[in-house]
Design a protein that fits this description.
Rossmann fold; 3 domains; eight-stranded antiparallel sheet; 25 strands; Glutamine Phosphoribosylpyrophosphate, subunit 1, domain 1; alpha/beta; binds 6-O-phosphono-alpha-D-glucopyranose; 18 helices
Length: about 600
């Protein structure tokens, strides 16, 4: 939520900042702004709406400065408006600040500053920050000391970039629970909320821990801990290629990412799995530990949580360990029963979701062992967890998650089988059958994508509808949940997902002539059951689409899309693909912005 970008070097900052903001726009897009240090001091330009609005302001072309900060906003405190946009400055215009996060005690700080005669122009929580820094600065502290003292007063989450008129060759950045990366290049440095936004400039990155400060100049970066003692940081080289952060000829990132799934799955399987063995390097989980755990919790938000649901059964079936899937925002407040015999697995594409990180910290405090399943290297969650395993989906830019989801489902299945091999509670032959099927998934995902024309035609028939229903049993129910979420997110069509057996307990009252009902049927043991439920809605006039890898009598449905067969535990990886495409083409038919749906953000760094 909210994207921040920064540059300090010898090139003009403005084009770099605008370019970076465009790449970060998926994080929030209700207003944007930049500040540069010009010959006559800090200059701030900001505007309501998308980055393109900001870029079309004439005045912005006069900016010559080679040091600057930028922000694209997802409003929390204060409605979207030019005045509430970042950067914000203090009353004396000495400092300019961009902020991603939420300052929870801003009311108290605002009151404190007002008593000292500071005035406020915006309704934001952020505006207290530059004024607080100024308050300490005028007491005689230097730039860095003033920022540190201000941060000591802040409660909540923040990634901050700060400019000061009196230090035209420096920038300070600091973070607490919000993402921020520093990219190093020759005689220039870049700051960003995520790696892909600056990947075309550098592959060398520094990651700050909570409340560490970086004082940047053009050719150096000094790092400090929270007591302002100098610390050393190791640079990490990122292997992602630049083209994976570009559209590569596709209309939208989402479509590109849907098509990248065979490769993302292939890369995620990587060297972890061969027909004979599963490898997790640097992973110190042993048989003895697994034998003594009483429960696994899988904790996440949104699509990542659906990936947990889609894999819970593999842990239970092959490891015989009770496995619960929890919504992170609920888990963190419900005093969960966790101790050293609990294993907590956290799934997060971005690795920055505030609720997931808070749930992780809670689990650690209660002595659970924690594993992060993340896509973004070096992200906060990977640094908090005891162990981290990565999906290798590459940068996911579209707000609606696709390739991260299928990669998460694959990786969690591999993890479950890895534990199963250690535990030996089910015959090795059964485990090997699933492993063999996992290796087939990239090819089968390619085959599934060949259904695109059929999906597009169906989208064309139903895109004007206002309600849709998704049904499934067992793992197909979880695919229904994820398919319904995709549709809501990007097409704004109201949709509901139900365990097909629940239909008769209420939802069937909503089925009337012409309503679209989508059934997912992949479990050979449940085919007839779900078909019966589909018959019940057909009788009431529903238009039905069935996604299946089983033999069904196609003539009874409006449309059937056949997908490749696989082991039932892996079917969510393939059955979701037509549903992703369906949501995509419905959104396109409606002329909506697929990659940046309204009100949403890719990375939810506030709770
Ligand atoms: C947001 C995104 C979703 C994502 C969820 C969790 O809501 O729009 O696509 O599934 O956050 O994000 P994470 O980065 O933790 O997987």
């Amino acid at each position: 939520m909210c994207g921040i970008i920064g540059y300090i070097g010898n090139k003009k900052a403005k084009p770099i900042l605008i370019n970076g903001l465009l790449r970060l726009e998926y994080r929030g897009y209700d207003s944007a702004g930049i500040a540069t240090i010009e010959k006559d001091g800090i200059k701030i330009i900001k505007e309501k709406g998308r980055i393109s609005n900001l870029a079309s302001i004439d005045e912005i072309n006069n900016l010559e400065g080679t040091i600057g900060i930028g922000h694209t906003r997802w409003a929390t405190h204060g409605k979207p408006s030019a005045i509430n946009s970042h950067p914000h400055s203090d009353n004396s215009k000495t400092f300019a600040v961009v902020h991603n996060g939420i300052i929870e005690n801003y009311n108290k700080l605002r009151k404190f500053l007002q008593e000292k005669n500071y005035t406020f122009l915006s309704d934001t929580d952020t505006e207290v920050i530059p004024n607080l820094i100024h308050y300490y600065y005028k007491e005689g502290n230097n730039f860095l000391e003033s920022v540190k003292l201000a941060c000591d007063d802040l409660k909540g989450s923040f990634a901050l970039e700060i400019l000061c008129n009196d230090y035209p060759d420096n920038m300070i950045v600091v973070r607490q629970d919000s993402p921020l990366v520093i990219g190093r290049s020759l005689n220039e440095n870049y700051i960003s909320s995520d790696i892909p936004a600056i990947l075309s400039f550098t592959k060398d990155f520094f990651f700050l821990n909570d409340r560490e400060f970086a004082l940047l100049s053009r050719d150096s970066i000094d790092f400090y801990d929270n007591n302002l003692n100098k610390i050393d940081k190791i640079v990490k080289s990122i292997e992602w290629n630049t083209s994976s952060a570009e559209k590569d000829g596709y209309d939208d990132f989402m479509l590109k990412e849907i098509y990248e799934q065979p490769n993302a799955i292939r890369e995620t399987i990587g060297s972890k799995l061969s027909e004979n063995k599963i490898f997790f390097n640097d992973f110190e989980i042993e048989k003895n530990y697994l034998e003594n755990i009483s429960r696994i919790y899988i904790i996440a938000c949104g699509t990542a949580m659906n990936a947990g649901l889609a894999t819970k059964a593999t842990f239970e079936k092959f490891c015989k360990i009770p496995t619960e899937v929890e919504i992170a925002s609920e888990f963190r407040y419900k005093e969960p029963l966790i101790d050293e015999h609990t294993l907590c697995i956290f799934i997060s594409q971005s690795g920055e979701t505030a609720d997931t990180i808070a749930a992780l910290k809670l689990s650690k405090a209660k002595n659970a062992k924690t594993i992060a399943v993340a896509n973004v290297i070096g992200s906060s969650i990977t640094r908090e967890a005891d162990f981290c395993i990565y999906t290798h989906a590459g940068p996911e830019i579209a707000v609606a998650s696709t390739k991260a989801y299928t990669s998460q489902v694959v990786l969690l299945n591999i993890l479950a089988l890895y534990f199963a091999e250690l535990l030996q509670k089910v015959p090795t032959k059964e485990i090997n059958q699933v492993k063999k099927e996992i290796l087939e998934l990239p090819k089968k995902a390619e085959i599934t994508l060949r259904n695109v024309a059929e999906v597009k035609n169906f989208a064309n028939v139903v895109y004007k509808e206002t309600d849709m229903f998704f049904l499934g049993r067992g793992l197909d129910y979880y695919t229904a949940c994820e398919g319904s979420l995709k549709l809501k997110e990007i097409s704004y069509i109201h949709s509901e997902s139900y365990a097909a057996g629940e239909l008769k307990h209420g939802p069937i009252a909503l089925i009337e002539n012409g309503v679209t009902v989508i059934g997912i049927i992949t479990n050979p043991n449940l085919v007839e059951k779900t078909i019966s439920n589909m018959q019940e809605v057909i009788t009431r006039g529903a238009k039905t689409l069935v996604i299946t890898n089983q033999k069904v009598n196609e003539s009874q449905f409006f449309k059937v899309i056949n997908i490749p067969n696989t082991n039932p535990y892996l079917s969510p990886v393939l059955s979701i693909i037509p549903l992703q495409l369906l949501a995509y083409y419905i959104s396109k038919e409606k002329g909506l912005d697929v990659d940046k749906p309204r009100n949403l953000a890719k990375s939810v760094t506030v709770e």
